[in-house]
Design brief:
heterodimer; A: 295 residues; globular; disordered N terminus; B: 305 residues; mainly alpha; 11 helices
């Protein structure tokens, strides 16, 4: 499907490279060389069989796609990881606090505030953060591209603002799921039993409520991985960070089809892996699923 | 799916479970229910706040061009002037008045987003009705296709489609419409699955009503609640995605005074201290999205009980 979608992109690849003034003969020659004159099915088979063996082909500018995307994937991974490390604990704590005081002002603030933050496009957050923290307070650089060979802390310093933008967009969903899960767990029979047993509130929350409220949260965190990749395109562009999102945006504007296809396929695979990990985590944390599997 | 966070699964509508013998009575019931919902809406604070914000932008979209300066008139000598009495929000790098561009910029997004969501709702509702009602083979095939669509982030898909068809207002509407249709169809399908088991559907079938009649005249009115909620929620996302695609340069082409585009054209000059051509369109998007979401919040609480 990715392949077909990318092929629909208009514009002859060869024509694109040589420019509008090249004569038709040389365009045809280059088409042959690139293999773009063959049937779609032949091209597809060629591409998918090479992809499986790790050979992603060359970009239209004759650089190996694997090199271009490999580095970008690592870079994006760093940014995504930092965002998740910040947002997951924050959102869970926020969601649990909101649930504990359901209906109160604090709850409304976290729920409505979180959802509003989520609804605002990430580049709007980027603009606001750059204005306040980079230009206003001078705390962070306006670009995310750290110098080569920078240490971990320098890298984090450069990546913090872009990560914060993603945090803003992700916070609302995760907090909402954590809140819903916690409310459900608070009303459950086992929680009432635990309270009636006379356990201190802290223990009830930690042992009985939290564990159950986290389950749906994990599921939503996995689906956010898909969103995150889309968000990365925009964030990486505005912070000029050489990640996979920027690579894709560039490839799309330059009609660099090999990069586009492989990049999107990689994204699909990353998304699948994220869903798989979530499934595994879910079963590890949920005794019901775990015991069923053991029987 | 790039904008996840499905709204709560649509519950069965509370009206319309009456027997077909009481069709007349049922439409009266429906009217009362609609009235009650509207009353609930009017009492909802978040709905009112959202309506005021969105209403302001709708006004700007309709009347804005009469009030402000020409948003396209460039004046290269006076580029990047800070906000002043002449230019309330300053000028951008082509010397265009930022205030005029922000006010008139409401028009594009308020044409694109609602049209896209109407398209998505119509297609998604039809798909949801069919998949939910027939189940079986048709459902399996359509559901697999829908899942394939949902597997990729919306922005990425939008980027592909927009590049394939070339950026324009129509492309943007079609892209968002097509991308959101599967999401809406899932909600509708869930609602139809519970509706189809109810007696009035069986009764309609026993009366030998044709399938389209059962689908659109019997079931559809009873799943309108979830559909309306879904519509308002998706409207917020549509603005989000449209702004994102515009920002990436795959939305409305320049020199239109589109907000996302304005940010894209000027975020490069932020570090030079020229914040006004970026901040004001950003704030415009933010207020519009929050306004739409407040409306969605109010609609959801009025219709989902």
């Amino acid at each position: 499907m990715i392949f077909l979608a990318a092929q629909v992109l208009p514009g002859d690849v060869a024509r694109r490279i040589l420019g509008p003034f090249a004569d038709q003969a040389s365009v045809d020659a280059l088409s042959k060389q690139l293999g773009t004159d063959r049937s779609l099915i032949a091209q597809y088979w060629d591409w998918i069989s090479h992809f499986v063996t790790g050979d992603l082909g060359e970009t239209v500018r004759n650089r190996p796609v694997g090199d271009v995307l490999g580095g970008a994937l690592v870079a994006s991974g760093k940014l995504a990881l930092l965002s998740f490390i910040i947002v997951v604990p924050l959102a869970i704590v926020g969601g649990v606090i909101a649930a504990m005081s359901e209906g109160s002002f604090r709850d409304r603030l976290i729920s409505v505030g979180g959802l509003s933050a989520t609804a605002i496009p990430e580049f709007v957050w980027a603009v606001i953060f750059i204005l306040v923290f980079s230009l206003g307070l001078g705390l962070f650089p306006t670009t995310a591209q750290f110098p080569d060979g920078a240490g971990v802390f320098t890298q984090i310093k450069y990546l913090l603002l872009p990560a914060l933008c993603l945090v803003c967009v992700l916070f609302g969903y995760i907090a909402r799921m954590a809140r819903a899960g916690t409310i459900e767990a608070l009303e459950a029979d086992y929680t009432r039993t635990a309270v009636l047993k006379g356990l201190p509130q802290r223990t009830v929350i930690r042992r009985h409520v939290l564990r159950n409220s986290l389950l749906p949260t994990i599921a939503v965190v996995a689906t956010q991985a898909g969103y995150l990749i889309g968000g990365l395109v925009i964030i990486e562009l505005i912070f000029n960070y050489q990640g996979i999102g920027l690579a894709l945006a560039r490839a799309a504007t330059q009609k660099d089809i090999p990069v586009l296809q492989s990049g999107i396929l990689i994204i699909g695979i990353v998304y699948l892996i994220a869903t798989l990990i979530a499934d595994i985590l879910y079963s590890v944390l949920n005794p019901r699923v775990r015991l069923e599997a053991a029987e | 799916m790039s904008v996840p966070g499905q709204p709560a699964a649509a519950g069965a509508s509370d009206i319309g479970t009456a027997s077909p013998a009481a069709i007349g009575a049922r439409s009266d019931d429906a009217k009362v229910a609609t009235k009650e919902r509207l009353a609930l809406l009017k009492r909802s604070k978040s709905f009112l706040a959202g309506a005021i914000i969105v209403g302001f932008w709708i006004l700007c979209a309709i009347l804005g061009s009469l009030v402000v300066q020409d948003p396209l008139a460039s004046d290269p000598i006076n580029d990047l002037i800070a906000p002043s009495a002449d230019h309330w929000l300053g000028t951008d790098k082509l010397g265009r008045d930022v205030f005029a561009r922000v006010i008139t910029g409401a028009r594009d997004i308020l044409i694109v987003a609602p049209l896209a969501v109407i398209l998505a709702t119509v297609v998604g509702t039809a798909l949801g009705l069919v998949t939910g009602y027939f189940r079986g083979g048709i459902d399996d095939v359509l559901s697999r296709i829908i899942e394939a669509f949902l597997a990729l982030p919306t922005i990425i898909m939008g980027l592909l489609v927009a590049v394939a068809l070339g950026p324009s207002r129509t492309t943007l509407i079609l892209t968002i419409g097509i991308l959101f249709a599967p999401i809406i169809s899932r909600t509708v399908r869930a609602a139809v699955l519970t509706e189809r088991e109810l007696e009035y559907v069986a009764a309609a079938r026993l009366r030998n009503e044709r399938t389209p009649y059962v689908l659109f005249r019997e079931i559809l009115p009873n799943v309108m609640g979830p559909i309306i909620v879904e519509f308002t929620v998706r409207l917020g996302y549509a603005i989000f995605v449209a702004a994102g695609l515009s920002f990436l340069g795959f939305g409305i082409p320049p020199p239109a005074p589109d907000w996302g585009l304005q940010v894209a054209e000027h975020y490069g000059v932020i570090s030079g201290g020229f914040w006004w051509p970026v901040l004001f369109p950003s704030l415009a998007i933010a207020t519009l999205v929050v306004g739409v979401n407040l409306i969605a919040d109010g609609v959801a609480s009025a219709f989902e009980r």
